[in-house]
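User: Quick sanity check before I run a bigger batch. Here is a single chain. Can you write out its predicted 3D structure?
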Amino acid sequence: MKMSSSKWNALAWMFLCCGFSLFSGSCMDGGPANGMVDFKGVYYDTQCMIQHTDPYLVGEPLRVYLLAYGGQQAPSQVLRQILAYNVYLPTSSILIAPIAMLPWGFAHILWRLLTAIALFLTASLIWSFGANYSLVLTSGIACFFLLNCEAIFATGNTAGVAVALCVIGVWCIMQERFIWPGMFCMAVGLLIKPHDAGLVWLFFLLAGGVYRKRALQTLVLTVVLGLPSIVWISEIAPNWMQELHTNLRLVSQPGGSSDPGPASALNGKGPSMIINLQSDFSIFRNDPHFYNLASYLVCGTLLLIWAIITVRSRPTSSRAWLGLAAVIPLAILVVYHRPYDAKLLLLTLPACAILWAGGGVIAWIALLVTLAGVVMTADLPLAFLMMLTEKLHFSEGVAGRMMTTVLTRPVPLILLAMSFFYLWAYLQRDAERG
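Assistant: Done. Predicted structure follows.
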């Protein structure tokens, strides 16, 4: 089908926005020693496996990194911690191994380009669906999405590729086009970051019909693709599961890089902040037993309601997009996530466009909550929020803690509001299915 000039203009703007993010993110690179810190972590984890050494042994990836640079370039404290504790599943390493075999200078440029291509393709596919309902709305949000990917390009975090592959897989399954490439993309996304793509896959499994068939086929692909990496790591490091568990515990302890509490060195700091619900509950009581239990109760209750609706609903296109929009914020809230993982919110755009086309008060609420979620998980607004609030200090009372949560950590509250709204819309559409 021939596209109108307005749609070609929208695609051109999306391309320019992606290019701006790629350029500005590359400019934020910390140099050959400290740039691309997240990708450098998985790159040297994989280098360990290629050299047949245990990547989960504390400090082993750091040793390989220092050996590669001959001790001439000391890593920053952040990079040192990333290289000290490998927290990636071995399934991510086997998929990145072809790139990890290349010299670092070429590998990190190739990874940036692959990430840019994946993100642009992802936004274009979702835009192509939403534009049928509202070209202006869909184009504006897609452009804003691509304009705020600096952190992904600066750090090289695998979330950029993992989320993009997951979204591409969803589009292929929903549109019933390129089914096997789509399922392959979703399987790879699951292998790289299962906590990003896991609940998306679960939706298709629970939805029944052809969606369940696609979910089971994707599961088979995931096992087939992931099994060689398990065999590979088991030969190199027979105790890798225990070592991975230890590394996860160490980075999550008070003051660690993945600690959602106020003692974390990175939490609450702009585009690097932790955005799962534990982050907000920790303000009121910085005890993992409390904030984990509270988060699981809230998210678990909403997930149970969502699962019941999904199982009993007939899997039409509009209901499916609403079901995905309801679970995406919960997928981010329930376990450890940072803003780059929230690029998954792009999957809420079709549901927003569908509701917007219906008009009325619901359309405006859909636009408001979706914009709030997309904007407040974006890099530039988060950096601006950090500058505004970094010197704010509130009392230790309940009112002060509430102000701290609302003003310095608003993202989990916004995501929770998104989930409530789309879950309600999903329930309403299910009630009207007859």
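The two ends are 33 Å apart (CA to CA).

User: Great, the batch can go ahead then.
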